[in-house]
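Worked example 4.2. Below are the chains of a multi-component assembly; read each line carefully before continuing.
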Amino acid sequence: MILSGVLLAVIGLGLVGWFAGRGRARLLYTGRGSMHSMPGYHGWHLALWILVPALLAWTAWSMIMPGLVDGAVMADPAAAQLPAGDMHRAAILADARNIAANPDAVAFDPLAEQLARPMRAAQIRFGMIGGLLVMIIALAGGGYGFTRVRAGFPARTHVERAILALLLIASLMAILTTFGIVASLLFEAGLFFKDVSPIAFLTGTHWAPGNARGVDIDGNFGAVPLFWGTIYIGAIIAMIVAIPLGLMSAIYLTQYASGTIRKWVKPILEILAGIPTVVYGYFAALTVAPLIRDTAASLGVANPSTESALAAGLVMGVMISPFVSSMADDALAAVPRAMSDGSLALGATRSETIKKVLLPAALPGIVAGVMLAISRAIGETMIVVMAAGASARLSANPLASMTTVTYQIVQMLTGDQEFNSPKTLSAFALGLVLFIVTLILNIIALRVVKRFREAYE
Amino acid sequence: MSNNSTFSSPAFAKRLARRHAAERRFKLIGLGAIVLSLAFLALLLFIMMHSGLGGLNWNFLSGSDSTDPHVAGIWSAAKGSILTMLVTLLLSFPMGVLAAIYLEEFAPRSRWIELVEVSINNLAAVPSIIFGLLGLAVFINTLNLPRSSPLVGGLTLALMTMPVIVISGRNAIKAVPPSIRDAALAVGASKVQAVFHHVLPLALPGILTGTIIGMARALGETAPLLMIGMRAFIVTPPGGITDPSSVLPMQIFLWSDEIDKAFVQNTSAAIIVLLVFLLVMNGLAIYLRNKFEVRW
Amino acid sequence: MTETKLTARNVDVYYGAKKAIDNVSIDIDNGIVTAFIGPSGCGKSTFLRSLNRMNDTIAGARVTGEILLDGEDIYASSMDPVALRARVGMVFQKPNPFPKSIYENVAYGPRIHGLANSRAEMDAVIESSLTKAGLWDEVKDRLSDAGTALSGGQQQRLCIARAIAVSPEVILMDEPCSALDPIATAKIEELIDELKENYAIVIVTHSMQQAARVSQRTAFFHLGNLVEYGETSEIFTNPREEKTKDYITGRYG
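Applying the procedure described above to all three chains together yields the following structure tokens:
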């Protein structure tokens, strides 16, 4: 399309400018100390003056052009026949866009065919205007930049300043992302809370969004069973598995294992940490859940469900244990050796030293590690989606199928519904709660670790 | 004051024996924990191999998804993964490295910079599904980018991977001793030149290691891509980054839901392919780390 | 009463392939203070640590030869290092109280060895140990305060009390005053002088003046060898070996 061509032209022009700037600077070079900056920097300086303003203009134009095109199309007499409904109208316009791009495409609606013509014309017209603007800016920049190629001109300083600006912008992306997350979550959740009261959401115990219609909407979005399921599976069952497993393996590896064992076992345990959660989920659904169900049946439990909190929690626990292990490892290593030496010199055995001196000393670090692990576990999606179940249930039975916040976020966004329906928006409200809880856990944990480290410096 | 008698009394000896027994038990529990973890891993790998190895043939690797389990292959999902990873890498690597350089070398101590650092540390720990929600709200809903495309998937995963690259990049840069910078400045290099010509090349192995590990994590992610709609039934491999596509872990997820038992072999085989990829990537990262790690 | 408590015969200590102690034989007597002196890296701390088998905790450390405590070889397979360390206590260079209360610090040893059967007995042990370490009056009203809240000198005395609480026969001290100020050092040297009545004390020190003040016998180590061993007064006024003389007169440090 026209704009892509213009982009290539601008980049090409920038390349030309680089060579031109460098070439001119080389001609001006008369010996050591005659110029402030090396010719390469002059080349870059010129190229930047061509590229940066032009690319900014290009980006700006690309963003406003669709609006301009749509405006032109709506002004066309054929547009009067468009239906009033938002979705329907958007579908026909999208269709028209499709035909405008590939003339061979078949239209779903004859109206789309009619609208394709004015759309094409508008696209060409605005594309040319924009392209011309961008090229003018590029050439103007190039002209200005060319006049700057002089012996005393600090091209290197300017180029380095541009580099620093680029670095700063890259860093600000992080804030932008955080801001984006918070803003989008708050915004969409805000829309949700217009329909459903936050109190009902946070304290209600009936979760049946499928039934949510009309006035009674509040009663069907009670998220407490979801919070319970998340805590039960992620913070209770998974931790019952992960903490002993992770802590004891960290203790063995740091206190008892020989160098060779440590060298081989540690990487293997890291593999456990690197397996994608979808694989864990599949393993849970394929092997672990049926195993639990069959064991339960043989123990006399009536009608055990295949999807159970236990299956998901167990597998999640094993998945998280390398994480707990590594944090416990760090915490134990931070305790000064003098402390364990002091205990051993008094005639304590290694296990007594670990239990009575090392673990109490390393406890803040270990607790922080557990908090971070819980934060990971409650944010985990695939394992629960594949092994836990969809029933929002407030039960303490580990063999029952139970759903979690993350599962429901996925559920609410499945299927065709309007983006702004309460069902879809509830996913954002759930996401907001999840984000806040994990954020709090992470902040507390990191603060504990920092203070703990300082205590031993 | 010699207390020989206490230490050679039978009561003391009995107590000593009990303490040593407790020590042995404790050590055994530790060993047991490791054995259990390794056994779980072995069981998982064995079951995947057992159910999937038979399905690994050229047809499987080059075919596309299909409703018939015997015909279905992973190529369309694999190509989608490749395209998505490309987008992720092209976006997160430059941003992450440049941000790491800035924060480590140039940033002044100010409240804004602290805010950036706190943001990055927190972003690294945010659940991946939240990034999916962000992608849905911003990329698909607001910017109207094509749903289920490697472009949107790559953008979303790039936001998730960038903090990881920044953190490992910062550690790699921090590890380069100040003497290197001082030496460069002493011959008249500017700060920017010192960083880019001297510090960065030395930090590069560490940065690459962190990037590979971050990309490996992104390769296995499913949840955020579920949010942006990559769960459709894709029959033809994507032509470009704006075509609807799937990714390998998503294909695994979709197949796992199938009722037809024959899909178990496909799912397990796809898992084997994914694990092999990840093993190669992590192995490469470890190799890089061991080969180029300089002990200052 | 100077019967021999510890006897070392032809002891070598290796760290991996490196030999840190070469063929050392020495008798340590009860009721006196024996000082190990020598320049940095000469192995005096290494040899000290082999007297209570603390070298066992270092990977790759190996001890050959004989070390006898009251006639028993402490490296024999029949000797339990756990029981040995209750009989041969150690105080370290940098005070290392546990992050527990003063009471719990001192009670740690007796508790694990089962030396006190009731709260009253334990209280008595704590009081007696802290008194012998010269710390009782200063802390008797705040036994539940953290051990780490004390000053450097007090912490070291707490560590000495902790070692005494197990009723050892020998107390090994590895440069116990090097991290302390002169006043705290003087207090501890006074304490050592009192303690020698009831224990065999071996002190490693890099300060010759301290060795001269505190000990009755002195052993001079150099590059892993025991160069000279004798009465402290003899070593410092009339050393037999050339190397000893050079070290004493400050030719090298």
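Take a moment to check your reading of the output against the notes. Residues 88 and 155 of chain B are 6 Å apart (CA to CA). The two ends of chain B are 52 Å apart (CA to CA).
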